[in-house]
Design a protein that fits this description.
This protein has 319 residues and is an alpha/beta fold. It folds into three domains: 165 residues, P-loop containing nucleotide triphosphate hydrolases (Rossmann fold, 3-Layer(aba) Sandwich), CATH 3.40.50.300; 59 residues, Orthogonal Bundle (Histone, subunit A); 72 residues, Crystal structure of tRNA isopentenylpyrophosphate transferase (bh2366) domain (Helix Hairpins), CATH 1.10.287.890. The chain contains 13 helices and seven strands. The chain has a seven-stranded parallel sheet with strand order 1-7-6-2-5-3-4, sandwiched between helices. Helix 1 packs across helix 2. The radius of gyration is 20 Å and the shape is globular. It starts with a strand and ends in a 6-residue tail after the last strand.
């Protein structure tokens, strides 16, 4: 992967030469995407000689940050950290609602169009691989699900926690399976719906088109050992900031581990521990750190061969 420290020079050239700009900041979890996106917004404002609020706007591309009441465990930016920069697609879904890449593509496209109409530069920020690909590769999603087939697949999933379905998916379409774990029931079910309902691999069914925007894509890159340290430290900080109390508050609102938002990793483990009456913070942190590291590995596998990405050393821009 090519690493560059001259990202500001790229911004300067890009802002002056793009008719339909879309800046993207992607990378593994805990890599500093949020902080870098703010740096980019400042650089855009400087180049355009405009106030921050009138230069760039940021769009969330993290599936978990779409949900209300889930702030600490998703590392959601706080209002006081936004520096007055408009942020979009945060807190737009109830934890009981389903978020899909097809839905996200529609909503994010609408937001990007609105930002460009205002004369501002949209900055897409996040780590949800399929959501980002839906926009950048103009994925065309297959038709909705067959309710009878979905019920059958849900019963099969519940029988063994999805192991058999995920194993079959991984054998037939490893590209799709690599984007999520067996624990992600909605994704496993949807992928198998496409496979069984159309006879087509999900990775083939999502046909790509031409991206309508002029893309400038930055990827955050860290040495593996440093990223592991960052993941571990951030997880510990989330617990210190009150992650367990946040989950307790969600449960008190009537949400359960069966609700789609609560299936996000970390939330489901904490909710299960609360239900068992055995909340061991150290044990939970160890489990969640391990799963987060696995997810970060899947993220980098997804993006490693994308030649459009300019990789930026996190060490050069993050305190």
């Amino acid at each position: 992967m090519v690493m560059t420290q001259n990202w500001k020079e790229k911004i300067t050239f890009y802002v002056g030469n793009s008719r339909h700009p879309l800046i993207v900041v992607l990378g593994p979890t805990a890599s500093g995407k949020t902080a870098f996106s703010l740096n980019i917004a400042h650089a855009v404002a400087e180049d355009r000689d405009l106030p921050l609020q009138q230069a760039a706007e940021i769009i969330n591309a993290d599936s978990r940050q779409l949900y209300r009441f889930m702030d600490i465990g998703t590392a959601k930016i706080r209002p006081e950290e936004m520096a007055g920069i408009p942020h979009h697609l945060l807190d737009v879904l109830d934890p009981k609602e389903e978020a899909t890449a097809a839905w996200y593509k529609i909503e994010a496209t609408r937001v990007i169009s609105d930002i460009l109409e205002r004369g501002n530069v949209p900055i897409l920020v996040g780590g949800s691989m399929l959501y980002i690909s839906a926009l950048l590769d103009d994925l065309k999603f297959v038709a909705g699900a067959d309710p009878v087939l979905r019920q059958k697949l849900e019963c099969q999933y519940d029988a063994d926690g999805g192991l058999a379905l995920y194993e079959r998916l991984h054998k037939i379409d490893p590209e799709t399976a690599s984007a999520f774990s067996v624990k992600n029931k909605p994704y496993v079910i949807r992928a198998m719906e496409i496979l069984e309902g159309t006879g087509t691999k999900p990775s083939d069914a999502k046909k790509t088109g031409t991206c309508p925007w002029d893309l400038l894509i930055f990827g955050m890159q860290w040495p593996r050992e440093t990223l592991v340290e960052r993941i571990n430290a951030r997880t510990q900080q989330m617990f210190a900031d009150g992650w367990i109390a946040e989950v307790q508050s969600l449960l008190a609102r009537g949400y359960t581990m069966e609700d789609l938002g609560m299936k996000s990793h970390g939330y489901r483990e904490i909710a299960a521990a609360i239900a068992s009456g055995n909340v061991d913070t150290n044990a939970l942190a160890e489990i969640i750190c391990a799963k987060t590291r696995q997810y970060a590995k899947r993220q980098m596998t997804w993006w490693k061969d994308d030649q459009r990405i300019t990789w930026v050393s996190g060490e050069s821009i993050t305190p």
